Amino acid sequence: MRYLLTHSLLSSWLYCLRDNPYADVETEMQEARTKLLGMREKFLRLISKDAEDFMPLSMAYRIPKGSPGRDGELERCLRLAAETPMEIFELSCEALEIFDFLAKKGSRLAVSDAACGAEFLKAALKGAALNVKANTNLMQDRAYAAVLEQKLEDGMAKYGAVADAVFDYIY
Questions:
Q1: Which of helix, strand or coil describes residue 128?
Q2: For 103-153, how does the pLDDT look when each residue is reduced to its tens digit (9 = 90+)?
Q3: Are 53 and 83 in contact (CB under 8 A)?
Q4: For 127-164, b where at least 16 C-beta lie within 10 A, e where not — what string?
Q5: What's the pTM?
Q6: Which of 65, 106, 143, 152 is the most buried (most CB within 10 A)?
Q7: pLDDT (average), residues 91-112
């Protein structure tokens, strides 16, 4: 997985920086590189954090039904378990904006890398949305759940279309 993230998040800009016809966007490519390097590290941290944040929820479900405080603890843990996938979702949206830029302004030699990266990010969007939704479906605080679900719906509509456009740009 580390290889896929590294490859998809970094290979596009490498080609872009080497091709002389793209000198007019070199500064923007360098900025994209810096952002993507930071995002790669953040994605890797969030993957580990997601597993850690699920553990309290799995423990909360062991509390016998009817026990005082069980419902409150479950709600707290459901929120915690939804937090990191939501961060992954939001980070994927940010990264898709960069891949859209790479596909449009980068080297024609690397456009397939940008499209592959966009497809990986679209899968990350969907996976994160599924994880968030699994938690919001069980939340008692429906107003809080609705806010998260609306963010997911809006993000899927906008950034799913961005990923599709990047893919369609080459295919």
A1: helix
A2: 888 777 778 888 888 999 999 999 999 999 999 999 999 999 999 999 999
A3: yes
A4: ebbebbbebbebbeeeeebeebbebbeebbeebbebbe
A5: 0.87
A6: 106
A7: 88
The residues near 165 (Cβ < 8 Å, ≥ 6 apart) are: 100
* Alpha helix segments (H runs only) across the chain: 2-18, 26-60, 70-105, 111-136, 142-170
Name the nearest CA neighbour of 99 among 16, 1, 2: 16
Phi then psi for residue 65, to 5 deg, are -60, 140
93's tokens:
């949206």
Compute the half-sphere exposure of residue 48: CA atoms within 13 Å on the CB side of its CA.
5
Dihedral sign of CA atoms 49, 52, 57, 58 in order = positive
Mean pLDDT of 76-88: 97
Reduce the DSSP state of residue 137 to 3 states and report it. coil
Considering all CA atoms of the chain, what is the largest pairwise distance in Å, rounded to the nearest integer? 68
Read off the tokens for 154.
């809006």
Which tokens is 163 given?
């990923």
* Alpha carbon distance 32, 109 (integer Å): 17
